Every structure is written in structure tokens, then in C-alpha cells.
Automatic annotation (TrEMBL):
GO terms for molecular function: hydroxymethylglutaryl-CoA reductase (NADH) activity. Belongs to the HMG-CoA reductase family. It comes from Salegentibacter chungangensis. Pathway: Metabolic intermediate metabolism; (R)-mevalonate degradation; (S)-3-hydroxy-3-methylglutaryl-CoA from (R)-mevalonate: step 1/1. Keywords: NAD, Oxidoreductase. This is 3-hydroxy-3-methylglutaryl coenzyme A reductase. It catalyses: (R)-mevalonate + 2 NAD(+) + CoA = (3S)-3-hydroxy-3-methylglutaryl-CoA + 2 NADH + 2 H(+).
């Protein structure tokens, strides 16, 4: 029977692996070898990766690819993408090329405000709480000066603090609702440090506020944390062209394509089952660039999906229109990203990705990421309403199946050739490979 392990984090890497091998991988020495196979020979680089997180045993690779030919606001970008799913980078590249000759992508950042809250409970006279807040607000702002000094030099800082009464939703619950500008950093540490300072001062000063009764002075801080919902940190990406120019590469006329495309978008707008998959396709592009540039994809995911439900029902993040013969397709999403701080200067591949993107500011990166999402969605919907996605998908998946079955270079070439004219399914590929191997 397996017993709980004590003090695991204090073991060396070697000891952790020994414990794992002796506990969960008893008859699988190959698994331990796999862990070691992924160590980097460069010990300095390995140590860097080990120290990103805790209890590190090895490294986990994801492909790092490039989607070239993205024309964004008349600048040409090659977009680095980190993603394991086949077809995504091919689809992004295809969409980039499609729009390259049709005016490219236009992207605008609408605003860049991030938020955080100090959540607290207070039992007593609401008017007194408001008076206390009005009095203490300058003290709160002053108290974070040591934290905000550098950010203010870069033009950012605390934008506002408001007291919000939430007692109609939860008894005795109030919050300090704070808005921040964190410039080129994602700003999580900055925001959380400011919030925790606000909370300390707010709680301590309450004890000295003469108007409060003892119970009122004992307001209780529940927690202080940034919000990953950033509907005031918005970016919009857009493409447009005459409907007649949409026909290339498809068997439909431009008009037919535009109408069918619009219908597909409308379905995603009103039908949550479709909207989730539709938005998942958008996230294929967004996450891949967010990951390559060392940003927090969980935060981005959470914020974007919340935004997709902002009108009370989960809906499409992209929209389309046809007006006066002009097809327009756009995406509007909240994105809190950083191009300084965090992993950006630590992870060599993240630094490389940012170099490829010509060292963007956070605002520029927001535009690139939004464009990647829009391009991905265009490519997906285009396939869905024309050939279906399996055709392209299975061709790309073919390579994964061949690798799984350890096909040699020669076998791969022959099988890829065979499946130019045959339908790819997992079983048909395996069957063909076996046939070939039997001669
Ligand atoms: C697959 O990863 C993404 C798609 O399902 C997106 C979509 O259906 O729009 C193709």
C-alpha cells in the first residue's frame, strides 16, 4: 500500500525521482529514463527551468512554431506559436496569407485598465463607512507610494479606489474596488502588493477612527486580489474586404461564402454549444501566442470566457457583417498581457519570441494576440463551411500517427504520398503501415 510522503519538497531532484520510481513506477524503468532524457545538458539552463516552479523532475516540451505573413496595421509580423495541436499553425498561416492581399488585419486597443479588489465585511452604519473611506482614501494612496514609484515613472500606477456596497447580494459584504494601469507589465505582483497594503492600512486605521463603534472598527478583511476579469482592458481586431474577393480557393462564389460564413457566426452568437467550440478555436490562436510570449494563459482564458458571457449567455467572441458589398469580421476581447517582468526576460524562448515580434509593448502584443485569435477563427469557420475540418486535420494528424508507430523517414514519405488520394483515419494509416512493413 502506498503511504503519504513527508518532506517531498526538501528532497533533491535525484531523491524525488528515486521516491517516484520506488512508489509509482516500480516496473517501469523506462519512465525514469524518459524523465532524464528530457533534462537539458546545459546545467545552467536546466537550473533556470527547475527554479521556475517547485518539485521539478524534468522538462515538458511543446512545439514552438512560426506563422509568417501577418500584416497587422500595415506592419508585417511572423508570429511565434507554442501549441501541440496539429493544424493550428498551418491554419493561422493560411489565414494570414489570405488577408495579406486583402488589406491585412487592423487592430486597436480600446483601453488598458486592470482591476483588483479588497473584499471585506463591515457591520454597522453605512454612512459612517463611507465617511471613513473618504477620509482614509488619500492615506491609502500615500501608503503604496514605495510600491508605485517605479510604475508611476513609466506612466502607470493606481487610477482609482472606490468603496462598493455589495450588501444587497451578500450580508455585510463591501469592497475596495481599485483600478490600475500597469503599462508593459502584466502587473499581477504590482496590483496584489498594492491591494494587500490598502487592506492593512484600511483595517488598522479603522481601529483609530473615532466615529466607529467597537464593532464597526472591527471590519474584517476577507481577501485582497487582482481580478482576471478585465473588461476595461480591451482590444479589437478586424478584417474586411469586398464580398467578391472572398471567393478565392473555395468552390463557392464570394457572395455564397460570405452568407454562409455570416450564418455560422450567428449560430455561434445564439447557441452556447456551438459558441464554446467556436471560441475554443479562437483560443487555439490566442493561447499559442500567449504561451510563446510567456504570459499567463489561464488568466487570459478565464477573463476571455467571462467576457463571452457578459450579456448573460455564453456567446461568440467574433462577429461578422455584410454591408454594401463589404464583408467585415471582427473580434473584441479583454487581454491583460505583459512584455516586461515575469518570464519575459527569464525564459530564453520567451525572449526569442518577443524578439521575433520586434520587442512589442504590451499594447502591441495585445493587438498581435487578438489578430492570432481572429485569424484562427476565420480559418476554422472557413474550413467548416467549405471542406469540413477533418480533411486538413487528418492530414496533419497523419504525422502524429506515424510518429506514434515509429515510422521511418522512408515509410513516412510513402504513406504521406498514399494518403494524398485516400481518406486518413487512424486505422487506415496503421493498416497501411503494417502492410508496408510486411512487404
Ligand atoms: C479545433 O481545435 C477547433 C475547432 O473545432 C474550432 C471550431 O469548430 O470553430 C475547429
Amino acid at each position: 500500500m502506498i503511504k503519504p510522503v513527508k518532506g517531498f519538497s526538501r528532497l533533491s531532484k535525484k531523491e524525488k525521482i528515486e521516491w517516484l520510481a520506488g512508489t509509482y513506477l516500480k516496473d517501469q524503468p523506462d519512465d525514469v529514463e524518459t524523465l532524464k532524457q528530457y533534462w537539458n545538458e546545459d546545467t545552467r539552463l536546466q537550473q533556470l527551468h527547475d527554479e521556475f516552479t517547485e518539485n521539478t523532475l524534468s522538462n515538458f516540451y511543446l512545439p514552438f512554431g512560426l506563422a509568417p505573413n501577418f500584416r497587422i496595421n500595415d506592419r508585417l509580423f511572423a508570429v511565434p506559436m507554442t501549441i501541440e495541436e496539429s493544424s493550428v499553425i498551418a491554419a493561422a498561416s493560411k489565414a494570414a496569407k489570405f488577408w495579406l492581399d486583402r488589406g491585412g488585419f487592423k487592430a486597436t486597443v480600446i483601453n488598458t485598465v486592470k482591476k483588483g479588489q479588497v473584499h471585506f465585511t463591515y457591520k454597522g452604519d453605512k454612512k459612517k463607512l463611507q465617511n471613513y473611506f473618504d477620509k482614509i482614501k488619500p492615506v491609502l494612496l500615500e501608503s503604496v507610494k514605495p510600491i508605485t514609484a517605479n510604475m508611476e515613472k513609466r506612466g502607470g500606477g493606481v487610477l482609482s479606489i472606490d468603496l462598493r456596497d455589495k450588501t444587497d447580494e451578500l450580508e455585510n459584504y463591501y469592497q475596495l474596488h481599485c483600478r490600475f494601469d500597469t503599462k508593459d507589465s502584466m502587473g499581477a505582483n504590482f496590483i496584489n502588493s498594492c491591494l494587500e497594503k490598502f487592506a492593512d492600512v484600511f483595517e488598522a486605521e479603522a481601529q483609530r477612527y473615532e466615529e466607529f463603534t467597537a464593532e464597526e472598527a472591527n471590519l474584517e478583511i476577507i481577501m485582497s486580489i487582482l481580478s482576471n476579469y478585465v473588461p476595461e482592458c480591451l482590444v479589437r481586431a478586424e478584417v474586411s474586404c469586398p464580398v467578391s474577393e472572398l471567393s478565392e480557393d473555395t468552390e463557392m462564389s464570394g457572395e455564397e461564402f460570405a452568407e454562409k460564413f455570416l450564418q455560422a457566426i450567428k449560430i455561434a452568437e445564439i447557441e452556447p454549444y456551438r459558441a464554446v467550440t467556436h471560441n475554443k478555436g479562437i483560443m487555439n490562436g490566442i493561447d499559442a501566442v500567449v504561451l510563446a510570449t510567456g504570459n499567463d494563459f489561464r488568466a487570459v482564458e478565464a477573463g476571455i470566457h467571462a467576457y463571452a458571457s457578459k450579456d448573460g449567455k455564453y456567446s461568440s467572441l467574433t462577429h461578422a457583417s455584410i454591408e454594401n458589398g463589404e464583408f467585415k469580421f471582427w473580434l473584441e476581447i479583454p487581454l491583460a498581457l505583459g512584455t516586461v517582468g515575469g518570464l519575459t526576460s527569464l525564459h530564453p524562448l520567451v525572449k526569442l519570441a518577443l524578439d521575433i515580434l520586434q520587442k512589442p509593448s504590451a499594447i502591441e502584443l495585445m493587438k498581435i494576440v487578438a489578430v492570432a485569435g481572429l485569424a484562427q477563427n476565420f480559418a476554422a469557420v472557413r474550413s467548416l463551411i467549405t471542406t469540413g475540418i477533418q480533411q486538413g486535420h487528418m492530414k496533419m494528424h497523419l504525422m502524429n500517427i506515424l510518429n506514434q508507430h515509429k515510422a521511418t523517414k522512408e515509410e513516412k514519405a510513402k504513406i504521406v504520398d498514399f494518403f494524398q488520394h485516400n481518406t486518413v483515419t487512424h486505422s487506415s494509416v496503421v493498416e497501411q503501415l503494417e502492410k508496408m512493413r510486411k512487404g
